[in-house]
Input
Amino acid sequence: MKILMVLTSHDQLGNTGKKTGFWLEEFAAPYYIFKDAGAEVTLASPKGGQPPLDPKSDEPDFQTAATERFHQDPAARQVLANTVKLADVKEPDFDAVFYPGGHGPLWDLAEDQKSISLIEDFFAANKPIAAVCHAPGVFRHTLRQDGKPLVSGKSVTGFTNTEEAAVQLVDVVPFLVEDMLKDKGGHYSKKDDWAPYVVQDGKLVTGQNPASSEETAQTLMGLILV
Output
């Protein structure tokens, strides 16, 4: 069982002068679910090497059992520091792909042609694809083989407009995940802000926010093991 996790390489929060990147919980919780299930996990990012961590996600208020485990796991930190370049991975080598969120993916992975084609390859091969929180933004330009948006007609979720408003970044992000998924024909649904919520439609799994990362990963695992 081989799982690819794709992380952002983007560390600038628009023009604010602040840093962003991937959200620690959304990487750590799925990573350990996959590892504890015996999966071989490969980490990739557009630039390779150490992906930028959103500093806010490392603050005490956002720590979980999974993030604490990561901080005490030198082997995992070493793997994260040496992600392979996205250009060097291909769909046939993996059973599934998982995209952790954080704001970073809205700038690079959503527009990255390699990421776009990789997702399209996984979809065409009927392999499980999962994305949590802001990571469903990676479906912005992905298409099915019939030329329609990949999420068109699919039940999906992702970071809500009201959650984005709560963190005061509506005017900073390049696009709103909720609006984009709706614009692309997705059947978007959500629960209360910050409540765990995961939607599965066929082999496509999406989670609403950081609280949804564990369940999103577990749902993906269930699809691999079928």
Observations:
- The two ends are 12 Å apart (CA to CA).
- The first helix runs from residue 24 to 36.
- DSSP finds eight helices and nine strands in the chain.
- The chain has one domain: 2-225.
